[in-house]
Design goal:
five-stranded parallel beta sheet; 16 helices; alpha/beta; single chain; elongated; 4 domains; Heat Shock Protein 90
Length: 573
């Protein structure tokens, strides 16, 4: 959605206000014409016996023409219902022209009719002129220029006429006309401000009402989406946990050690799947809260593509799907971890849902960008899903899952300055990930590493008010070779700090009781252990918590924590 232009918005608001004023003016002009038409005919009847035929014919013809235009214009206006722009460009200037023509017809009566009238009739015409000016001020209050012209043309002409006459009240009448004319201009200014303020308030109320309706609709949509999400999450989490529970019962009861080992693997797999679902939920919340940190670098696509293909080929083979990877020399400037997660998600979706025979991963240069394509020849997507594919909680035709994968993938792409798009036209689906291009770099020689995480000689302090969880994690780290100890509250933290033992790494839960956070715990330990590295764990999905932890700069692990990933972080520093 494009950003709003304040100048354009103000211009549009003024146009709407002016259009509303014009609609009111045309309505009032129609009423004024009905009233004035009868008065003008009465004036014609009064002056017909007194005025020369030529003068009367000139004035009557011109006045009849103006009156007809004044009567027809409001009717045409309300039949056509012009837009605000058309009112501003055409109708408002035309309305002013009609008002000026009426003023000229009234001013003409001063010079064509009044010289032949008796003094009482002249005073009656002064009342007529005053009524005409008052009616025009009411019907065209917004147009100050038109009202000033009316006062000068009608009252000015009448004042000059009376000043040139030899009647004893000529000066008084002229003074009254000019004073009344000035008063009418002041009244017009006041009416203009009052009408404009009222219209502006009404338009503002309409805009606020519209914005409120949109906000309520968005809130309802968000609530419905969250309801679907909670239902899907509840279902999806129950599945692996149910499987893990059944495998656990088998592990306890089955007499065959081989079957117990198989059941143990089932328990591990069930919890791993549940953990992956929870991680996806947490990742979505971290993105929403702005707590995801991007570490861009030059990334070679060829080895990344090869690693993904090797990882996913077994699953693809089970789905009878062939994975083709195009050899590419291209590099991108992005976070390699996030790129891998995006492409893994797209490829896994194709393997599970596409019912395709072939999945192709390729890349092409597009100027300063690189376009990475994940395409399959499967069933594709219907138009309704394709339009909302990247909306959070949107599910595909199978109706399974939480509907977060594509939403997360697009947000991660945008965090790296890229974009993720879907082309579901034709056979299959084609996802295009666009990222900034990078120059190829020469990688340093890789150091020899072992495939297993060794924690031997590393002192680790585990801080968690969940005593069972802290003890279990410390014991697991000890099995991996670490010198691990667990503490659970401020008193135990202080005792560990003041003792002779020193930790190399501190693994702390974020919420330690109701009053203490992981940051508080680290602050307590820093005076004695200035060089100890800190890692944070939490099961709190609140966006505010994610932001607070991200602000510390410490690595974050979402519970349930993957021990292997935690071990690598402890070793890697």
């Amino acid at each position: 959605m494009s950003a709003s232009d304040p100048v354009a918005d103000e211009r549009q608001a003024h146009r709407e206000i002016r259009a509303s004023e014009s609609r009111l003016e045309f309505a009032m002009a129609g009423i004024f014409t009905i009233l004035i038409a009868g008065t003008l005919y009465y004036v014609y009847q009064l002056f017909a016996p007194l005025v020369p035929a030529t003068n009367l014919h000139i004035w009557a013809s011109f006045t009849a023409f103006v009156t007809l235009v004044m009567a027809v214009t409001p009717i045409v206006f309300f039949i056509r219902r012009p837009s605000a722009q058309a009112i501003e460009r055409y109708w408002s200037p035309f309305g002013k022209l009609v008002a000026i023509l009426f003023d000229l017809s009234a001013a003409a009566s001063v010079w064509l009719l009044l010289p032949f009238a008796s003094e009482p009739l002249q005073l009656l015409m002064v009342i007529f002129y005053s009524a005409a000016i008052s009616g025009q001020v009411i019907s065209t209050a917004e147009s100050i220029g038109t009202n000033v012209f009316a006062v000068l043309s009608i009252f000015g002409s009448a004042a000059i006429f009376f000043l040139q006459s030899d009647t004893e009240y000529a000066g008084s009448v002229a003074g009254f006309l000019m004073a009344f004319g000035g008063l009418m201009i002041v009244v017009a200014l006041i009416l203009k401000q009052a009408i404009r303020s009222a219209i502006a308030s009404r338009l503002a109320a309409e805009r606020l009402s519209g914005e409120l309706a949109v906000a309520l609709e968005d809130a309802q949509d968000a609530r419905d989406a969250r309801t679907r999400f909670i239902a899907a999450a509840s279902h999806d989490l129950r599945q692996p946990l149910q499987a893990a529970m059944l495998f656990f019962q088998q592990m306890r009861r089955h007499p065959d050690p081989a079957r117990r080992e198989e059941a143990a693997e089932g328990v591990t797999h069930g919890f791993a799947e549940a953990n992956a679902l929870l991680e996806r939920m947490m990742e979505h919340l971290r993105i929403e809260s702005g707590a995801v940190t991007v570490h861009p670098e030059a990334v070679a696509l060829a080895p990344l593509f090869a690693a993904l293909a090797d990882e996913l080929r077994p699953a693809a083979a089970q789905a009878k799907l062939k994975v083709d990877v195009e050899a590419t020399p291209l590099w991108v400037f992005a976070d390699p971890t996030l790129v891998t997660r995006i492409l893994r998600n797209l490829m896994q979706n194709a393997i599970v849902h596409s019912r395709a025979a072939q999945l192709r991963l390729s890349a092409a240069s597009e100027g300063v960008q690189v376009r990475i394509t994940v395409a399959d020849d499967g069933v594709g997507f219907d138009e309704d899903f394709a339009a909302a594919a990247f909306d959070a909680y949107s599910q595909g035709g199978q109706g399974t899952g939480m509907g977060l994968g594509l939403s997360i993938a697009r947000e991660l792409a945008r965090l790296m300055g890229g974009e993720l798009a879907l082309d579901g036209r034709g056979k299959g689906a084609c996802f295009a990930l666009t990222l900034p291009a990078a120059e190829a770099v020469v990688a340093p020689a890789a150091e020899n590493t072992t495939s297993e995480v060794a924690l031997t000689g590393i002192a680790v302090l585990v801080i968690d008010d969940d005593r069972a969880g802290a003890t279990a994690l410390a014991n697991l780290l000890t099995l991996a070779g670490a010198d691990a100890r667990a503490v659970h509250d401020a008193a135990e933290i202080a005792a560990a700090r003041d003792g002779a033992w020193r930790a190399d790494v501190i693994v702390t839960d974020w919420h330690i009781g109701r009053e203490m956070t992981g940051a508080d715990a680290i602050a307590m330990l820093r005076p004695g252990w200035p060089d100890a590295r800190a890692l944070v764990m939490t099961g709190d999905a609140a966006p505010a918590t994610a932001r607070d932890i991200a602000a510390t700069g410490w690595p974050l692990f979402i519970k349930p924590v993957d021990p292997a990933a935690l071990g690598r972080a402890i070793v890697g520093g």
